[in-house]
Every structure is written in structure tokens, then in C-alpha cells.
Amino acid sequence: MELNAIKATSVKDLQKALAKRLAHRDIKDDVIAAVSKRMIRDGLKIAAFDFCPYGICIDYFSDRPFSVDAYVKDNILRAIKLFPNGILVDDLWRMQVEMHVPELQGLGGR
To answer: Radius of gyration of the chain from Cα atoms?
Structure first.
């Protein structure tokens, strides 16, 4: 796999996906836009997201080096799990994040 082959997720694509998932809820567009901007990280592809009791759980993928410290800096996170997928694909990283998002808290349940 060549470096930077994975295309990063854009704010516009994420807003559309969030709006579709939250269409049956009474959540305003400006809230969806703000949450989308907080979820996007430069160079990281969002493979999946789901709602959990404290906000949102996100699966990021990257095929290039990135700084977890830079990601943590501006967010209230419950957990970060970093997995190297190097056995299947060299230099592919998966980062699972449980992000505290008060606007979406309680939408998901376990």
C-alpha cells in the first residue's frame, strides 16, 4: 500500500452522514455542523461512527504517521485505543475514540 493512499474524510461528507443518522431526532443543523468539525482530524479517514451513552464513538484509519497528542489536545475523550493493522496492510493504523459530546449524549445505549 502506498503512503497517503487513504483519502481523509471531509467535514461536508461527515455532516451529510451525521444528518442522515440523526434525521429522526430533533437536532439542529448548527449542532451537527459543530460536532462534525470536532470529529474531523487532518489526514484521518473516518471508517465508522456510532452513538454511545457519553457522546460518540469513532473509528479512524490512517496510512501515515499522526500525532495522538495533537488529537487529544482540544477534545474531551473517554478513551483512545490505537491498533496497528500492519499484519494485514503495512503502515495502516486504526484509532478508536470515545468522544464526550454533550449535544449527543444519551442517543446510544449499551
So the answer is: 14
